[in-house]
Amino acid sequence: MEIDVVLPCLNEAAALPWVLSRMPNGFRPIVADNGSTDDSAAIAAAHGARVLHVPQRGFGAACHAGLLAASSDIVCVMDADASFDPGDLPLVADPVITSAADLMLGRRTLPGKGAKGTWPLHARIGNRVLAAELRRRVGVPVRDLGPMRAARREALLALPMYDRRFGYPLEMVVRAAEAGWRIAETAVPYYPREGKSKVTGTLGGTVRAVRDMRRVLASIAMPTPAQAGASAPAPAPAAMPAPAAMPAPAAMPAPAAAEAPFAMEAHFAAQAPFATQASS
User: Fold this and answer.
1) In this predicted structure, what is the pLDDT of residue 119?
2) CA-to-CA distance for 120 and 62, rounded, in angstroms?
3) Average pLDDT across the chain, whole number
4) DSSP 8-state assignment for residue 86
5) What is the C-alpha to C-alpha distance for residues 249 and 143, in angstroms, rounded to an integer?
6) Closest Cα partner for 10 from 195, 200, 203?
7) CA end-to-end span of the chain, whole Å?
């Protein structure tokens, strides 16, 4: 079986030789070049990769263009910056091949001591908060939104994914969860990347990523009345009527305004974790 590997790319000339030389047999790299101004495209072609020029800017645009261009039943996606070893791709692909999972994510682990600089603290905290929010909102049992992942191509294309920026990886997980997919994760080593990150490496990139992800979280579908009814507890038995001679006084209706403070509290509680990310 051959598996296409989508590698979204923006100025990764320094990383591509190592990344492409580590591609396992049966895994075909598709470098989705998103407007690189260095020699990324030429280097990718020289190392045998299929190069796809994606004029629409955005991480999600590059990923989705690569997904559309792929032809294999199962596809993988991973960063092209040498932060992952392509030799670990079978860790995420094999569970999908055997139908043990519908979407398999690589949970990033830092190999050895002295690797803390690989993944900045503010990025790790933001990732944990985001994973916790996913567990709370859609019940996805993950601890990391790992960029290395695998799924079946046709099923991915059937998901209603619209973000073409930094929110694309999150939206993939959210839409898969809403569709009832079996989502799992496995540990993969995470290494120091070549060059500066387009997301966590700059304040502007971090702010844009947080904004895009908040937009995706805000789009999570609320349960339908039928779904809510299916999970609602059984109604309490009706109270025994009071004796006719002594009717129970009617309860005074609560003022409508009493509910407002709680709605405001819920709103700000839901937003608070992401304010932390934005300020990091």
Assistant:
1) 62
2) 24
3) 78
4) G
5) 53
6) 195
7) 43
